[in-house]
Design a protein that fits this description.
With 584 residues, the protein is α/β, with parallel strands linked by helices. The protein has 18 helices and 23 strands. It binds nicotinamide-adenine-dinucleotide and 3-phosphoglyceric acid (3PG).
Length: 584
C-alpha cells in the first residue's frame, strides 16, 4: 500500500450534491511511483555517472551504492537486474532494454540534472518505474555558461586564445561585436532561459523571448517581451536556445528557419544538440546567414571527430559543460540523492517526471483520500461476481472546490490500483496505473459533483461505480444498475458510507463483512456474538436500512479474517438474506 508520511490537516464540511460536471481526462497522466520500498533489505543503487560527494554520502547512508562508470549498454543491462535504483547524468542512455533487463526490480531512475531525453520515459512508465530528476540545482550554472558562450563568441575569445597559443598575434582578425543594444531572443523561457534573460538585460541587451507555455507575468516581471516564433527569428541579433528536446523541438532550427533569420545572427545552444539541424547550421554558417555559433551540446556526444560543425572557424564549442560547476554538481547530487531515497521509501516525489508532482501541502490534504480511493477500488471490484469482467468504471468526486483546484490524478491512479490488484498478479502503482488500466481495457471516467459550502476540505466523498456487471452482493447494485460504493474521510480515517442504495458507516480498516437482512432487533448482537466466539475482533458496525423492519445492510469491520465456518454461521442466521466478506 501507499506509504505516505505526511499528516492530514483538514476538516470535512457538510453538504451534498447539486450538479455534475464531466472532467476532461488529461491526455498524459504523469503518475508517481508510490509503492513502499521493502524495508527488510537495503536497496541497491547503481550510480552510472560521476556524482558529487555529498550526494554519494547521502545515498550510502540509506542503500548499497555501486558506482560503475562508462558501462557499455550490455554491461548496464547485466548489472541492472540487481539494482533497485539507477542514477545517471546525460551520458547514459536508459533505453527500453534497460527496463526489460531489470525484470521488474528497477523502481527508480534518477537523472542527476534536468534533461530526461536520455531516458525512455514510455518504457519506464510501462514498467512502473518512477523517473525523478534534479531540475533546479544546475539552472544558474547553465545560465552562466550560456552567458559565457555568448560573450566569448561575440569577442572570439576561444579562437583568439588558440591563435595566441599558436604563436600568432591577430588583433585585426578577431575584432568582435558588441552586446549592448542588440536584441537577444531567448527560445524557451523556463528556468535557465529566464536566468539568461535576467543576466543579458544586465549586459544591456534588449531581450525578447519565445515560449508557447510561459506565463506572460513571469516575462513581464523580468522586463522581457514574449513574442511569436517567427518574430523572434526575424528580429534577433542573438538567439539563445533553452527549450527541452521533444518531438516538437527536434531540429527546430533548420534550413527553413535559418532562412527566416536576420543575416549575421549569432546562435548559442546550451539546451540540447538535437534542437538544431547541425548540417543545416553548417550550411547557414557557410552562407553567411549565421555569423557565429557557440555550442555546448550536440546531437551525438561526443561528436564525430570529423564533424564539420565542430571544426568550423566561426563555431565555439564546449563539451556539455553547462551544469559543470563545483557548486551545481554538489547541488544536483544532493537533489537527486534525496529524490531517489524518497522514492525508494515510497514517498511521493516532488520531482517526478512520469508522475504527478504533488506539492507537500497538497499531499498532506489528499493523503487520507488517496487511501480511501484505493480501498473503494478494492471493495468495488470484490463485489463483482467474476471480477475480470470489469470494463467501465465511473468515479465521482464531490467537492465544494472549483474543478481546477482539485487535481484528481493521484486519486484516479489509486482507484485503478485498488480495482486491478485484487483480481490480478499485476503490481500496479501510481506510475503505471493508467497504462495498466488501458492495457486491461478498463475505462475509468471521472465526474465532479459540485457542492455548495466550504471549500476548506478537498473532498466531501468519492463514489466508485462499476457498470455492466453482476454483483456477489445484490444489494451493492444501486438503482442505476451499477455496483456502487461511496466513502468519506472522517477525522482523517477513510470510511465506507454507502453500498448500493444503503447508507452505512464503517471505517475502512481491516476487512469488512456486508450482510443484507430483514431489519429486526437483536441482529447486531447475533452477528457480534458469532464473531466473538471465534475471537474475531469487531472494529465497527453500522446498519443502513430503507425503512424500519424492512431490508437493511449491516457493515461490520473486522480486524481478522473469519474462518469459513464463522462466515457460514452468519449466513445461516434466518434473517440474513445475503452476505459477503471483503478484504481491504
Ligand atoms: N548544457 C547543460 O549542461 C544544461 C544544463 C541545464 C539544462 N540544460 C537544458 O536546458 C534546457 C532548459 O532547461 P530548464 O531547466 O530551463 O527547463 P525548463 O523546463 O525550466 O524550461 C524549458 C522551457 O522550454 C519551454 N518550451 C517547451 N517547448 C517549447 C517550444 N517548442 N518552444 C519554445 N519553448 C518551449 C517550456 O515551456 C519551458 O518554459 C533543457 O533542454 C535542459 O536539458 C542543459
Ligand atoms: O540537462 C541537464 O541537466 C544538463 O544537460 C546537464 O547534463 P549533465 O548532468 O550530463 O552535465
Amino acid at each position: 500500500m501507499t506509504n505516505l508520511t505526511l499528516k492530514p490537516t483538514f476538516q470535512l464540511p457538510a453538504g451534498r450534491s447539486s450538479s455534475l460536471v464531466t472532467l476532461p481526462r488529461p491526455s498524459i497522466l504523469r503518475v508517481v511511483r508510490c509503492a513502499a520500498a521493502s524495508l527488510e533489505a537495503k536497496p541497491t543503487i547503481l550510480v552510472a555517472e560521476k556524482l558529487g560527494e555529498a550526494g554519494l554520502a547521502l545515498l550510502k547512508s540509506y542503500a548499497n551504492v555501486d558506482c560503475a562508470y562508462n558501462l557499455s549498454p550490455e554491461e548496464l543491462n547485466t548489472k541492472i537486474s540487481l539494482c533497485d535504483a539507477l542514477i545517471v547524468r546525460s551520458g547514459t542512455k536508459v533505453t527500453r532494454d534497460v527496463f526489460e533487463s531489470s525484470a521488474g526490480r528497477l523502481r527508480v531512475v534518477g537523472r542527476a540534472g534536468v534533461g530526461i531525453d536520455n531516458v525512455d520515459l514510455g518504457a519506464a512508465t510501462e514498467h512502473g518505474c518512477l523517473v525523478v530528476n534534479a531540475p533546479t540545482a544546475n539552472t544558474v550554472a547553465a545560465a552562466e555558461h550560456g552567458i559565457a558562450l555568448l560573450a566569448a563568441m561575440a569577442r572570439n575569445v576561444a579562437q583568439a586564445d588558440a591563435s595566441v597559443k599558436a604563436g600568432l598575434w591577430q588583433r585585426n582578425k578577431y575584432v568582435g561585436v558588441s552586446l549592448v543594444g542588440k536584441t537577444l531572443a531567448v527560445m524557451g523561457f523556463g528556468k535557465v532561459g529566464s536566468e539568461v534573460a535576467r543576466r543579458a538585460k544586465g549586459l544591456g541587451l534588449h531581450v525578447i523571448a519565445h515560449d508557447p507555455y510561459a506565463p506572460a507575468d513571469r516575462a513581464r516581471a523580468i522586463g522581457v517581451e514574449l513574442v511569436g516564433f517567427e518574430e523572434a527569428l526575424a528580429t534577433a541579433d542573438f538567439i539563445s536556445l533553452h527549450m527541452p528536446l521533444t518531438p516538437a523541438t527536434a531540429k527546430v532550427l533548420n534550413d527553413d528557419t535559418f532562412a527566416k533569420m536576420k543575416k549575421g545572427v549569432r546562435i548559442v545552444n546550451v539546451a540540447r544538440g538535437g534542437v538544431i539541424d547541425e548540417d543545416a547550421l553548417v550550411r547557414a554558417l557557410d552562407a553567411g546567414i549565421v555569423a557565429q555559433a557557440a555550442l555546448d551540446v550536440f546531437i551525438e556526444e561526443p561528436p564525430a571527430k570529423d564533424s564539420k560543425l565542430i571544426a568550423h572557424e566561426r563555431v565555439t564549442v564546449t563539451p556539455h559543460l553547462g551544469a559543470s560547476t563545483m557548486e551545481a554538481q554538489e547541488g544536483v547530487a544532493i537533489e537527486i540523492a534525496e529524490a531517489v531515497i524518497g522514492a525508494l521509501k515510497g514517498e511521493l516525489a516532488a520531482t517526478a517526471v512520469n508522475a504527478p508532482m504533488v506539492p507537500a501541502e497538497v499531499l498532506s490534504e489528499l493523503k487520507p483520500f488517496v487511501v480511501l480511493a484505493d480501498k473503494l477500488g478494492r471493495l468495488a471490484v470484490q463485489l463483482v461476481a467474476g471480477g475480470s469482467g470489469v470494463k467501465t468504471v465511473r468515479v465521482s468526486y464531490a467537492s465544494a472546490r472549483a474543478p481546477d483546484d482539485l487535481d484528481t490524478r493521484l486519486l484516479r491512479a489509486m482507484i485503478t490500483k485498488g480495482l486491478i490488484e485484487p483480481i490480478s498478479s499485476v503490481f500496479v502503482n501510481l506510475v503505471n496505473a493508467d497504462f495498466t488500466a488501458k492495457q486491461r481495457g478498463l475505462r475509468i471516467t471521472e465526474e465532479r459533483v459540485i457542492l455548495d459550502g466550504s471549500p476548506e476540505s478537498p473532498l466531501e466523498y468519492i463514489q466508485v461505480q462499476i457498470a455492466n456487471v453482476e454483483s456477489r452482493f445484490a444489494s451493492a447494485i444501486s438503482d442505476s444498475g451499477e455496483i456502487t460504493v461511496e466513502g468519506r474521510v472522517k477525522d482523517g480515517i477513510p470510511h465506507l458510507t454507502r453500498v448500493g442504495g444503503f447508507e452505512v458507516d464503517v471505517s475502512l480498516e481491516g476487512s469488512i463483512i456486508l450482510c443484507r437482512q430483514v431489519d429486526q432487533p437483536g441482529m447486531i448482537g447475533k452477528v457480534g456474538s458469532i464473531l466473538g466466539e471465534e475471537n474475531v475482533n469487531v472494529s465497527f458496525m453500522s446498519v443502513g436500512r430503507i425503512a424500519p423492519r424492512k431490508q437493511a445492510v449491516m457493515a461490520i469491520g473486522v480486524d481478522d479474517q473469519p474462518s469459513r465456518e464463522t462466515l457460514k454461521k452468519i449466513g445461516d442466521i434466518p434473517a440474513v438474506e445475503e452476505f459477503v466478506f471483503l478484504k481491504l
